[in-house]
Amino acid sequence: MKTVEKYAVLVVWALIIGFFSWRSDAFGSTSTVKLILSTQTVILIATLGVMVSLAVQEFDLSIGSVVGFGGCMVAVLDGVHGWAPGPAIIVSVLVCAVFGMLNAALSVLLGIPSIIVTLGTGTLLTGITLGITDSKVVTGISVKTVRFMTDPFLFGIPAPFYLGLLLCLVAWFVLQHTPLGRRMVFIAENREVARLAGLRVTLIRAGALVATATLGGLAGIVLAGTNSAANPQAGSYYLLPTFAAAFLGSTTIVPGRFNAWGAFVAVYFLTTGITGLQYLGYAGWPEQVFYGGSLVAAVTLSHIAGHRRMPSVA
Amino acid sequence: MTNVLELTGVSKTFDDIRVLHDVTLAVGPGEILGLIGENGSGKSTLIKILSGYHAADPGAEIRAGGMAFVHQDLALVASMTVLENLRIARFRTGFGWRIRWSTERAGVKRFLDQVGLDVHPDTRVGDLSVTEQALVAVARGLADIDETGNGQRLLVLDEPTAYLPRDGVERLFGVLRDLTAQGASAVFVSHRLDEVRELCDRVAVLRGGELVATVDAADKTERDLLELMLGRSVEDLYPDTASPEGEPWLTVEGLGGGALRELSFTARPGEIIGFAGLPGSGYDEVPYLLTGARRATGGTVQLDDRSVSAATLRPRAAIDLGMALLPADRARAGGAAALTVRENLTLPSLPAFTRFRSVVSRGRERKVAMEQSQRYAVTPRRPESALRFLSGGNQQKVLLAKWMLGEPRVLALHEPTQGVDVGAKREIFAHLSAAAAAGAVVLLSTVEHEDLAHLCGRVHVLRGGRCVRVIEGGELTPGRLAEAVYAS
User: Where is the ABC transporter domain (chain B) (predicted)?
Assistant: First the structure.
């Protein structure tokens, strides 16, 4: 039973790959694999981001806004103000981290539920993004950045994918093999028990929210670099896929816990389904249906399996 | 007169394991039946079958009239009014589905009168005392029965006294006796054998899923009931405790916070010290204030040669000083129910289970979890199962084992045997005594005067947030303690 639970998503993934390869000749090719692996890095990194907060029972709804902001910030610094790529990227990520500190201060120090705080701060940040870009798409990102993000790096897949893979590795190690990861699980399961065991609950919760915003910013930079432009409206798209993948990921590999490889599998599982449907000629609707449907399915399955991992809002 | 509840041949099997075997029993009108049994005896399963949560195995026959349940946690919504809690599912509505408030109020008042509660139906439940809340839960039970029943009334009370002060228990019992005098019946489930004897007419004893005896309460002593429950004669529940010598090494001065105003005491290594009092006297604040779990308003704690201000003490610092706290609320503050026994055990001492101070070694964790499970007789001995799958007594043993891993020098406990069966209780006492013998200071806050009298070398009786009496030596008996606690 436990094994079934562990690998159910992998099995279904294999089944849909089989199905689409059977129905569409174009689907079963290395170019499809490359396409899928190259285009989903933004979602992968942002999913790892929300997963870190979810792992301590915090909901960061500002993730989409941070992705959008991070991309626009780097585009404005690099493309408009002519900063060198390195400093532009570093400053953008740092500003996102500071935004995470704002989320942490409000929800952890003042005790306002993070789901409400980030709903507000996220909207605020989207407004700022529209302000700094004059509500227009920003172009002019230096060629060096764009080429790094889009040129094949290994096996024909660009470097950001490997960055995402590396981040998965780090998240896997921290969550599953360090005392910090174990402590995060306790904070999520029973904050009072964690506090009485002498854990630095406040620091860890705050750190998780800062990590989420930082990873969100990084995802935004990858987005802008890959597109060689930043759209101030782009961020809102990323809220649903990341939560869907994080929750779906928590039902597999290590069922009942938010885990890195589960999230990895979930991101590419969802993309496979959407890409496959597009190959069969369905356009437009599959994404919403897939992401929305799997979020609900993941949470429901997890609930039925008896893992009460739903963050409490109150 | 026909019986209010009749069970014939009730069995229950989970995954091939039979947890209830052929239980047959009846409750007559006006009768209070006690239901006792160790954790794991099938008691909870039987209650859940009555409430319809579990279905009995085929072949069982259950006949019941109007029945209502009052659970330990009362299942009341504190932020809503008494009226809303009683009527939430059954509001009578008039034109435009408007709730007929005046009719509702009068109806509710009738049930409140039956339990002798003189509160306005619009009072918020959260503003009532715990005793009054328990009575509201009983009133709701009566109201529910009235709605559905056929004239027969049976209240099933599952550990209703767990959170009640002594006078509240008496008041509840008075109400139950009045109700049964008017023909209602009750099933009373409790770990507290003295209360079972005091209240019930007959007592049904479950052991290992079987109904081993149904006896008249008046004929049996507490010890008789205990032996029926355990199926063997009771060795002494309490271990021998030696009175230690030596210099005091824990000195607490002017400790205050919450209901506690000012408490000072000293303790020598190996001493077991009790704290007793009525609710609100502050006796139950001591373990929490001392270990930084609740913020103290003042006082100093001196351990060995290190002195700290209690107001700045936090759990982390307290643990570093060598203190450990076993809180009363197992579910909310004791352990994480969904996580494994192993994970719960190693939480406070996790750094000791790492390689290179950064990688948790699950192998080492497993080994120690196995050892601790064995040492503390945790059954089932499965460190990888979630804590919530263990019975209350076994959970408590795990949580005690968790803190003992850090070899604390001061072990502070609040109601360590609440909701714990007698077997586990004896084991926990033996471990406390062993910890003291190894040189730890054990501080015990509890309402169980019997336990205090047998385990402690000295008991501080608190009233109004201050220590009004210290009882020790030959004077330390349950009776004397009760006198000191209830004397006003």
Answer: 5-233, 232-487
Q: B290 and B185, same structural domain?
A: no
Contact B246, B270 (CB under 8 A): yes
The verdict on B47 and B165 lying in the same domain is yes
User: Residues B87, B19: one domain?
Assistant: yes
* Beta carbons of A197 and B315 less than 8 Å apart: yes
Domain count, chain B: 3
Q: Confirm whether B429 is domain-assigned.
A: yes
Coil vs helix vs strand at B325: strand
CA-based nearest distance A183→chain B, Å: 8
B56 CB burial (10 A radius; 0-12, 13-18, 19+): buried
Smallest Cβ distance to A198: which of B319, B327, B332? B319
User: Inter-chain contact A196–B315, Cβ cutoff 8 Å?
Assistant: yes
Please give the residue range of the domain that contains residue B280. Answer: 235-322+408-488
Instruction: Give helix A260-279 / helix A285-304 axis angle, nearest 10°.
Output: 140
B202 vs B212: CA distance, rounded Å: 13
Residue B331 lies in a domain: no
Residues in chain A: 314
| SS3 label, residue B277 | strand
Q: Examine the domain organization and report whether B214 and B161 are in the same domain.
A: yes
The interface predicted TM-score of the complex, written ipTM, equals 0.84
Tens-place pLDDT, residues B44-81? 888 888 888 888 888 888 888 788 888 877 778 888 88
Residue B462 · residue B468 · CB < 8 Å: yes
Q: Which residues of A touch B (CB under 8 A)?
A: 177-179, 181-183, 185-186, 189-190, 192-200, 256, 307-308
Summarize pLDDT for B342-364 with one digit per residue, the tens. Answer: 999 999 999 889 888 889 989 99
Indicate the residue of A178, A192, A195 with minimum beta-carbon distance to B360. A178
- Structural domain count, chain A: 1
CB atoms within 10 A of CB A5: 18
Residue A314 has pLDDT above 60, yes or no: no
Q: Quick one: B130 and B210 in the same domain?
A: yes
B127 found inside a domain: yes
